[in-house]
Amino acid sequence: MTGHAWTIGGRSADKHALREALALERQSRKKASVLEYERLEAERNARMVGTAIRRQMREAGLTRTWIQVRPRSLSGHRDGGRRCRRIEIMSGLIVAKRSHRGRDGLSSFHFKWTSRGLGNRRKHGSHRYRRGEAVRHLRYILRDQAREINGGGLVSNISTDPDTLASVFAALEELESHGRTNANVYVSIVLSLPNELTSAEREVLLSNICAIFERQSLPHAAVLHAPDPDGDQRNNHAHIMLSLRPFRAEPDGGFAFGVGTAADLNDKEFIKVTRLEIAALMNAAMIDAGHERRFTALSNQERGLPARSKSEGKSSPGRKHRERRQERIDLMAGEKAYREERINAIGVVQEELIAAVVAPQVDRNAELEAMRAKVHASAAATTVRTTGAISPVARMQPPAAPPVMSDIAPQQAPPVPVPPDLDILLGRLAEMRWPPLERRNGRIVLGLPVRYLHDKAVIDRLRLAQMDERVQAKLEEEWAVAIDALRKRLTQSEPFGRALETDSSEQALIDKAAKSFFERNQRHPDVIALVVAQRSAAERRVLELQERERAEKHKRQQRSKKVAAAVARICGAAGGGRVSETDRAPLRPLIVLLEEPLIEGRLALFINNGKLHVKARDPVLIDFTDKLFAMKMGSAALGLLAQETNGLISPIAQPFQTFYALKTFGDDTPQTPLGRAQRERE
């Protein structure tokens, strides 16, 4: 040693004892770390096993014990229409911007799943769960001021009465409080919907989406919301509130809840599958409505696009506040500029009036007398020069009376006051949207402008010169433009939008101006001709649509029978001998997901020259078939499904396609599966 005196446990130690002590410490720490890792791994595996057991029991319907309840009466209406920022942040109700379309032509959509329960007290201390939150959340999303359809747009498997919904969710909250200390009470979902669809089509789409939770017997309430008045007017969305505890309605008017919960659904896998199914439902709705845009549930990385940050395109409370504050500043600046321009115009008028009042007064009567005397004198001089000498007879005759001149000048049309900057004013008029034009007695006149949309000073100055030929020619051009724009608007389902009287956005003002133009000129022959033509076209479209729906319904019924029979032979009892029960269980969910696209014609399967061909409208369906083909006995299931549905070629163009080479082992008979297969991409 180097002269140091070392002691371990009261005993002297040399260098060998020191090395041994340090090595033992390292070994004990490593052993403790290994034991801790094994303990955590065992807990994780236990949770996974428990989740799998609960999922299997739920799918098998082994939870047969129910708790009946007759909830007390509560009000489901919210007093006042003001927004509550705390509820929006706490329940994840901050709505992202509208759907984003990527470079691949597919649009992503906003889908936010937020679980709220008693365990939230340990997380986000400022937003911990408080008693009665479920009812407050329900009242907030059902408030009338935010609904897209006034008094409607509500989808629920409990009731369409807000009071009944509030009573049921209050009973659910009380039931969860008697169970686990971290029990989940409700789930809040925010979902963006296609703005191209009508309100009725969005309501049908929301009903189809809620059918996903209906299959799991989960109580839910969903409502359509209109876009935020201060945000993008294309941001139509829906709010869904559900519970993970199974539910059923009793014949006596009460309700019953399952003893067990579907907590295994509150994971990433179920949310991912739900997003995929919602994307398929959105695309089906867009196809039925005849729109081109399509949606996908895949991430940008899966689609080969550059990743986007989580904050990109989303609105935080601070950013929303700054945007609204800037909008108010811009609005006040516009009002200030309008007032200044109006004050300047009034000042010019006052100056002209003062100049007219102060101008020297001229005696018009004296001017007329002087002009009359001058005319008489010139007439007398002309007579003397013409006759020379006057005869006696002529001298005896009275002189000819001078021409009578009236004091009243002949009435003439006053000249039209044309402003010197007429060309500039006409240019400003051409820049306006829907100028206030009106046909009167064969001419076009200017009416009252719309505030914040039309330049009132320009219209007031042009109104004084509106009878001038140049102004009339320009107004005729603007009239033709307005009639053409009105023809395009009348072809839409909502020609003048849904702008409320209190809405002051730019689009709302344009809709109001268009509606004002239509109402002001609705008796004019040009506008009447547009209305009559649109009515005839609408009637023809309705008849064509009815005939198309009738034919499509017949084809859908035929496809439905064949597909249902094929799925039953694979997944049902009739599939015995084709796919065993052990291999059938993992295949059943994917087979069921392919059933609806096959019925609707968005997917086609057929076998040709020993190859299984797949054609689909959506690449997501191609991914489904890839996963199914890669699973055990998946190729056999796809082959059987193609045999049963062979010939169901979809009438819709299928831009995505692939095929799989089927290599059978042994004879391919109706009693044996197609065997193993190797696949290759086209």
How does this structure look, described?
By secondary structure, the protein is of the alpha+beta class. The protein has four domains: 6-62; 69-300, BirA Bifunctional Protein, domain 2 (2-Layer Sandwich), CATH 3.30.930.30; 422-523, no CATH class; 546-661, no CATH class. It has helices at residues 15-60, 85-90, 133-141, 162-177, 199-215, 268-289, 317-358, 364-387, 392-396, 422-431, 456-464, 469-490, 506-520, 525-571, 581-600, 619-630, 634-645, and strands spanning 6-8, 11-13, 66-69, 106-107, 111-117, 154-156, 184-192, 220-225, 237-242, 247-249, 255-258, 294-295, 437-440, 443-446, 603-608, 611-616, 656-661. The strands form six sheets. Strands 5-7-9-8-6 form a five-stranded antiparallel beta sheet, with helices on both faces. Strand 10 (247-249) and strand 11 (255-258) form a beta hairpin. The model is unreliable at 382-411, 573-577 and 664-682 (pLDDT under 50).
